[in-house]
Amino acid sequence: MGHTTAEPAWGPPYAALQQRLDRLPTGAPDAPALRQILRLLFTPEEAELAAQLPTLIPVATLAQRLGRDEAELGGLIDEMAGRGLVLDLEHRGQRWVALAPVVIGFFEFTFMRVRDDAPMAELARLFDEYLFTDPEHTFAHAVFRGSVQLGRSLVREEALPEQPPTEVLQWERASAIVADADTVAVALCPCRHHAQLLGKGCGAPLRTCLSLGGAGEAMVRAGLSQRISKEEALTILAEAKQAGLAQIADNVQRDVGFICNCCGCCCGMMQAIRAAGIHDAIVSSNWSAAVDHGRCRGCRSGCVDACPAGAVARVDSEGQGRRKYWAVVDQSRCLGCGVCVDVCRFDAQRMVPRERRVFTPLDTFDQMLAMAIERGKLGDLLTDTLPGAGPHAIARTLRYLEGTPVATALRGVAPLRSVYLRAFLAVIHAGRRGLGDGATGA
Fold it and tell me: What does the alpha-carbon distance between residue 352 and residue 160 come to, in Å, rounded to a whole number?
């Protein structure tokens, strides 16, 4: 991809780890930069363990499966969790471990704090090469190739009309998400810290990355984030808005795990929109920006410069009245974040509800299922998850498939070559046709 430094032999534990990461719904395409990143972050022993990790598994079960002492294995997991290579979670008195993907995963966990235990400048350069400077945007297209994404935009509550014509749900409001969280923690924005290490920092606030609930608890336990009060979290959100940052949240309705405060220049998700042209890399809110051309003055700053997704342009108004220019919103790129409303000096920007509500997965399990189906990786997800999660995961998978359009579901299960799942979907399809809902098969 542009990095030409000679690399040592590509050993089995690291090759296996790259292949394991690539089986995750977000993917990890092989590249020289990724190979070097893995060598810098993982010891050979850690790479070997990570390559064998299911998506989520109890530590006791993992120790039994690998024939290892649970206490010794737990110590290794502690070390890896402290460096952001895995996440360890507590659930009903049992410890679980999850493999961290590249994003949202060990890229963020590497740069969420100042560290002296890793070659940060070298890692920053390698991640920049792998994530951002590849002219083919290989990684971005692997991560964001579907319509179900990791992050969704939150509309600024103060940008909404006083009497909105559509309901604003709790999980659409940053203030409500924070209020409902059992744990709130904060860390450095990994994207801006990464850019700062490259000498490309933008000057926006750094201490803005919020982790919530169980994810927040895991981040605090690993030393990646600092526990804070809900009041401090709301202050951070307010200061981020004043700095022109957009709020991007975990793309789920329940147990939201993070709220990022993102700029258009450093944020990896924003760069997928602006540089790679993947306009749905962030799921929009249920609102979009609209311009009142009776008020718009077509100024050279304001909404055009402020929009983090580059969705607003200043165009020739073709002599309408005495105004030569005005702002126009590209709805295919608008995130519905409301940043433009806050910066417009002439009250020409407003938020209006989208005609159709945006799909938001119920929780992380549904999110991963939807992403895996879209990306043709359902078989990998089930293979990697079911040994740790058991019959409950099977039942939820079948329920999810039952509500998925048949053509999409069939594409998702094709890699499994499962006669049972195809028959299951055929029965669903027949039932829908019998009810006359207009479903089409594949």
Answer: 8
